[in-house]
Design goal:
elongated, about 450 residues, Rhopdopsin 7-helix transmembrane proteins, about 75% helix
């Protein structure tokens, strides 16, 4: 028997005047449902169903007590009696509220309709933009991962909208819990592959790991995190449906989230080392220090901002993951899990801003469509740790700089030579680093004169 349709009335105020006909009708309906439940519970053998029926019985009994007091109050003429009945009705109303709070999945805090509906629409629009940009710029891996994450976000916030209309809906609660918790794993998977692309664009010497090692290591970590969180969510769902403690399921989710936070922290360390090395070498050697094949990508207007956007997006998702970890550690009944202000600020806002950044500064916008980024995906190469060490690369660049400087000093034409401009132009095309050093030496010579 489905008891979800049993009406449970939770009044907001107790001092209002309720028509006697309404009081009589509601009381009779509650009494009828209570009688039906008592017949069913006598033969019920399933523990979960029995617990659910008993909760409904308590709610109906509290509702009947409340409306019984209202019925007496409606016919009483003595002001002192009416006042006493109003006090008792207020107490009965408080009992009803407490029962409703215990039977709902948000500790009685209704998810806001406007905020969650707006977020559902926002993430749906982000999904549309990501599909258009991903297809246009042919960023298939980024598109697949980020679209999967955004689909989960849309479903999750749709579940919260559903919960607004039915606070006791088990399916709505599980839908929003699992989808919103898992979504950032897929968002980060897209960023991990982007790191592999940037390693190829800038040069493997500036990265601690090889390009595909970022995808393999961190996406595997993401997969482990997803399995742990999904498994914990399934356990918690089963425990909730049977009215048992959800501590076992939430513990699994905590482990999954903790694993995600640790892997993201490790990724950030590698990312900032990579960014620092690129910055230092650009300041010292210019663009000639990087992979020449992808110089066209690095010259694009949106490529430098892409580094900053990606850095901020990772930090935002990292903050969100720490919040979710703390929330799960506190438990489903904790203040973090049931205070929507925290949720909207540390979950919804963080992921929304991160998605906004990687949509406005999309990888395709940063790279363009003209140059294909070739990543060596062979397993033999990916699992090999042999690559040029960063210190060796710096040493080689310094040696090249010294050699170029000596060569330039020998080739530098005399002041006033009419062929000076042509020689420099040819040298800039053939030897970018030599050409830059040549200009520096010429400028220093002219200043000294």
């Amino acid at each position: 028997m489905d008891f979800s349709s049993v009406p449970i009335t939770v009044p907001v105020e107790t001092a209002v005047t309720v028509p006697l006909a309404t009081i009589t009708s509601v009381f009779a309906s509650a009494a009828s449902h209570l009688s039906s439940l008592q017949e069913v519970v006598a033969t019920e053998t399933d523990t979960g169903a029995y617990a659910s029926i008993m909760v409904r019985e308590r709610e109906l009994e509290a509702s009947m007590a409340y409306y019984s007091l209202l019925g007496v109050q409606a016919t009483a003429t003595d002001p002192s009696v009416r006042q006493a009945l109003a006090t008792q009705a207020a107490e009965a109303s408080a009992v009803m509220r407490e029962l409703f709070k215990n039977d709902s999945f948000y500790q009685g805090n209704t998810p806001s309709l406007g905020g969650n509906l707006a977020l559902t629409i926002i993430f749906a629009l982000f999904l549309l933009f990501q599909i258009v940009l991903g297809v246009f710029y042919r960023q298939w891996w980024f598109l697949n991962c980020y679209a999967a994450g955004l689909i989960l976000e849309v479903l999750g916030y749709a579940g919260r909208v559903w919960s607004h209309h039915d606070m006791t809906s088990f399916d709505a609660y599980v839908m929003q819990l699992v989808c919103i918790t898992l979504a950032p794993c897929f968002l980060m998977a897209a960023i991990y592959f982007t790191m592999a692309q940037l390693t190829v664009i800038m040069g493997q010497a500036f990265s601690i790991l090889k390009p595909m090692q970022y995808s393999l290591i961190f996406i595997i970590c993401d997969f482990v995190s997803i399995v742990l969180q999904a498994g914990g969510g399934a356990m918690a769902s089963a425990e909730l449906s049977n009215h048992h403690s959800t501590r076992g399921g939430s513990n699994f989710m905590v482990v999954g989230l903790a694993f995600q936070v640790v892997s993201m922290g490790f990724f950030q360390i590698l990312w900032y080392i990579f960014c620092y090395r690129c910055f230092v070498n650009y300041k010292r050697y210019g663009d000639s220090a990087f992979e020449t094949r992808y110089a066209g990508i690095r010259k694009r207007l949106m490529f430098p901002p892409f580094f900053g956007a990606l850095s901020v997006a990772v930090i935002l998702i990292f903050i969100r993951s720490i919040y979710r970890l703390t929330e799960m550690a506190e438990g489903f009944s904790g203040s973090l899990a049931n205070t929507e202000l925290y949720f909207m600020t540390l979950e919804a806002l963080m992921v929304s801003l991160a998605t906004l950044l990687v949509t406005v500064v999309h990888p395709g916008i940063a790279y363009g469509r003209e140059i294909e980024i070739i990543i060596d995906k062979r397993l033999k190469s990916s699992f090999s740790w042999k690559k040029e060490h960063y210190r060796d690369a710096r040493k080689n660049m310094d040696l090249d700089r010294e050699q170029d400087a000596s060569t330039v000093s020998e080739l530098e034409p005399y002041p006033g030579d009419p062929k000076d401009a042509d020689i420099r132009a040819d040298r800039d095309v053939a030897f970018p680093l030599k050409g830059r050093i040549s200009r520096e030496l010429t400028r220093e010579r002219d200043n000294s004169q």
